[in-house]
Description:
The structure is a single chain. This protein is of the alpha/beta class. The protein has helices at 21-33, 50-54, 69-74, 91-97, 117-127, 142-148, 157-167, 184-194, 205-214; strands spanning 4-10, 40-44, 61-66, 81-85, 104-108, 130-136, 169-180, 219-230. The protein is 35% helix and 25% strand. Helix 3 (69-74) links the parallel strand 3 and strand 4. Helix 5 packs parallel to helix 7 (157-167).
Amino acid sequence: MSLSCEKEFSKNALSYDKYNIIQKEVAKKVVSLVENAPKKILDLGCGSGEIYKLINWSIEEFTAVDISCEMCKLHPRNPNISVINANYEDDNLFERLKQKKFDIVISSSSLQWCSNLDSMAKKISKLSEKCVISLFCDGTFKTIYQQSNLEPFLPSQKEALKIFKKYFEIEYSIEKYKLFFKDNISKFRYIKKSGVSGGKKRLGYKETKELIKNYPHDYLEFEVLYVKGKQN
């Protein structure tokens, strides 16, 4: 199933403290796709706990994994939450997680950073029969790529879908977002602080200055793939 829609957000990047506007919207969508109120959940790339905060049903066990120690410190804590500061691609972590049985694996706005998405999808399929995944795709910052002649560093929809179809029967949707800004400086400040760029800096000062000066839109583009997977 392929669905596509576009959402727009009018924001002034100079006026808010948090820079994860799109990620929060994506997390809401991810949780809305989870069915049957699973009791044992694994959240890969949990960040500060947006997925857990959005869950409105009773759960028995929530396992949260993130590579950032600082993010793990911000994650909610209670007796049924296990927060693990680790790289979710690490084989040793996978062996530990295999000892548990999860009703579902969730990952929101994180798997686009995998060094090997195919390997990660295969691991997820061995941890649970169900998954709900969202990841940013190469339509994100499309105009920036075009203006700068850079190759996209995020996975393509086609590539990601092909991988997940190997391990799950899937339903999927693609959503496009526009985030509006007061000026071009604000746009590029957002890119730097939001984490959507993965901390990648691939333009020099002169090229960046020209891009900021000549960027043609009052918004940034984002493209997100949502995958709901189930094994036979």
